[in-house]
Amino acid sequence: MSMFCFQCQETAGGTGCKMRGVCGKTEEVAKLQDLLIYTVKGASELVVKEKLDVEKLGDVNGEVLNSLFMTITNANFDADAIEAQIRKLMTLRDSLKGQAENLHDSASFTANTREEMLEKAASVGVLSTENEDVRSLREMIIYGIKGMAAYAEHAKNLGKEDPSIYAFIYEALAATLDDALTADELVALTLKTGEYGVKVMALLDEANTSKFGKPEITTVDIGVRKNPAILISGHDLPDLEQLLEQTRGTGVDVYTHGEMLPAHYYPAFKKYENFAGNYGNAWWKQVTEFESFRGPILFTTNCIVPPRSEEVRARIFTTGSSGFPGCTHIIADENGKKDFSPLIALAKTLSTPEEIETGSIVGGFAHDQVFALADKVVEAVKSGAIKKFFVMAGCDGRMKSREYYTEFAEKLPKDTVILTAGCAKYRYNKLNLGDIGGIPRVLDAGQCNDSYSLALIALKLKEVFGLDDINKLPIVYNIGWYEQKAVIVLLALLYLGVKNIHLGPTLPGFLSPNVAKVLVENFGIAGIGTADDDIELFLGK
Ligand code: FSO
Ligand code: SF4
User: Fold this and answer.
1) What are the structural domains, with CATH classification, of the chain?
2) What is the reported pTM?
3) Backbone angles phi, psi at 540, to 5 degrees
4) Given this model, what pLDDT does residue 248 score?
């Protein structure tokens, strides 16, 4: 077997990519990512065993977050960038060494050339843990940590850090090296990962709202204007801010794609007249939508899909933890400033975007905006105008089976409301589902990390209705997952005590039968059926 990866929902055959990733990841990139994770584990063990103060680690915290983020599905396909990151991490790791003895190999191995790295990688990947239950639990924790690192990196980019989150990342990653831990201890660590998942989402929420204001109800144009334009994708709002500042007054418009759509809901970005609207849909549709967009594209994070033509590749720029071979990668200077002038110059030489849709969509229902509507919502629940809420947050993806979510949304009775966040929304946010007494039937809170808002809304409703258990609310969780940020969101919901979450379109391939059983028995986790059967099940008919 040349590679093994089963971290995302689209893993080959539902069990593992073994030759090349369904995502387009090559064997070489997969192996280098395995070694990068291994190096991060080694650094984590040193932080734990040397009892180092995480607040005094200098660049280590940021580079650990970056390394983890680079290995998230669809974030970085650039072997050279990953190799350089392994070198950087090995150096940082070695700088942590002190008196500790009996260190794990990950804390001391060296590999100097690409060949040596690939050779080493072959023995340290996912399958190096032989017991399938231990492997399943370890990987679930690692994937949750990857999602946590992504959110922590976004918060850090806005100057918000929580040392306890870093300390937990080191503790958890070091624990994945410990063969003495029992399955029960690993299950407990999985829940603790969820606890820190809540913390990191709260931190990012605070970082985003304190800098850019509280999301508010906003109508977003989905058509096009007549100016040359840049498309920005991914999740990082400070990158968007810099791009808007630099394009202001240049005659170049900026459109969002995929997970950047919720940026329109923040007050701070409304002052930019060239912030034109949202172009297209969820990440996987970029294959055709980038072709028709015709202008430069900036990736701030995942989800990148390998472009099918050189023409499109030449228009793609990456920044932050994202990367793609052959695409220009923009790095920040020592003051954090990124120079986006190459995109602006290129945009001016290219055609304006081709119109693929017209009209608008409405969003901005993060926690404060929903709390402002609380009286109306509570009244609608009490009067029976709203019978049930369906949390349909998470991710979208390529699989045909995800048509389920569109059908499900269409078939839900008119006295139900969908609460959404993440790119999952694109399966139903353009359907005309109407409203209930002025409350739209699809309430979009924002990006996948804004699932935090949905949890806060549930906790608020629990308080308003004086319930002792979040599971007594008329809320059903029917979540679509794809990559590792969805894993941390799921673990956060489990930590908050949410039971009976339905997860689709398929259950994770990284769950061994025994671990799946634990999730089913203790948390009522279930898959999905047909839209008709599930609606009947959820409405208790
Ligand atoms: Fe989607 Fe991709 Fe936000 Fe993910 S664009 S799939 S869970 O990166 O992070 O929701
Ligand atoms: Fe396969 Fe997903 Fe891993 Fe890509 S990220 S190699 S599609 S399991």
Assistant:
1) 12-211 (1.20.1270.20), 218-347 (3.40.50.2030), 367-539 (3.40.50.2030)
2) 0.98
3) 65, 35
4) 98
